[in-house]
Amino acid sequence: MQEPEEKKIALELLETEQAYVNRLHLLDQIFYTELMKEAKNGKTVPEEVVKMIFSNISSIYQFHAKFFLPELQKRMEDWICNPRIGDVIQKLAPFLKMYGEYVKNFDKAVELITVWSEKSPPFQELIADIQKRKVCANLTLQHHMLEPVQRIPRYELLLKDYVQKLPPESPDRDDAEKALEMIFMVAKHSNAAIAEMERLQNLWAVYQRLGLEDDIVDPSNELIKEGPIQKVSTRNNSTSEKYLFLFNNMLLYCVPKVIQVGAEFQVHLRINVDGMKVRELNDTQFPHTFLVSGKQRTLELQAR
Questions:
Q1: Distance (Å, whole) CA 201 – CA 206
Q2: In what residue span(s) does the PH domain sit (predicted)?
Q3: Which residue from 118, 120, 276, 300 could staple onto 294, CB 3.0 to 4.6 Å apart?
Q4: pLDDT in tens, 111-161
C-alpha cells in the first residue's frame, strides 16, 4: 500500500527537523561554545561580541532539541493509532516568536563577523578551523546562521501542503488549519519586527543628520519624504538652497551646514502638519513654486 500524501509530508517535516536540530547544535554547541571559550581567555574578541553574533541561538536550540523534535518523533512512531501533527505544531507555534530577536539581529551579526575577522586574526582562524570540519559540510558560519532565518517560512510551506493533502474527513483537519494560521501569524510577527527595526534605524540616522535636537527626537515619528528645495525671496528676486524633512506630524525647514561637523543640517523652522496648508502658485519667473503656510509662518518654495 502507498503511504498517504499527508503522512509523507509529516515525515518530511520530521526529517528536516532532525537536520535542523543538527545545524542548531553546530551553531550553539560548537561555534558559539568554542568562540565564547576563546573570548573568555581574552584571545580573540570581547565576550560581548560573541553574544551579539549568536543572539538567542541557545534558547532556540534547546527548544527544538529538547521539546519539538522529541514530540514530533513520538507522534510519527504512533502514526497508525494517531495520524495527526496539528496539535503538536499548535504547541510549538507560540514559542516561535523568539525567532523575532534572532532574525532582527541577523544582518548585524553577519556584519560583526566580517568586521572582527579583519580586526582579529585569531578570531578569523578559529572560525576557519571549525569550518574545515566535516560537520560543516564545506559551508561558512554565515551560511549556517541563515538556517534559523529560513525555518519559519519552511514550516509554513510544509504545513500548507499538509493541510491541502488532508482528506476532508481527517481527524487532524481542524487542528492543522489552526496550526497553519498560528504559524502564519508568527511569520508576520517576525517580518513586522524587522520592518520596525529598519524604520527606527533610518529614523535615528535622520536625527543624527539634524544634530539630535531633543524636542525632535521621538521614536514614534515617521519620515515621509526629504529632499532639497529652493527658498524664493520676493524681496530681491532670488532663490537659496534649503532642505525639507516631512514627518507625519511636522515639516522641518532646514539649512545645509557648510562645515559638516556633527550635524549635516540646521533646523531653521518647524511647521506643524496639523493646520498646515499647501497651495500651488503660477509664477512665470519661478516655475514649480508653492506656498506652505502653517500656524508658525508662510514659506514660498520652489521645487526642481
A1: 9
A2: 222-304
A3: 276
A4: 999 999 999 999 999 999 999 999 999 999 999 999 999 899 899 999 999
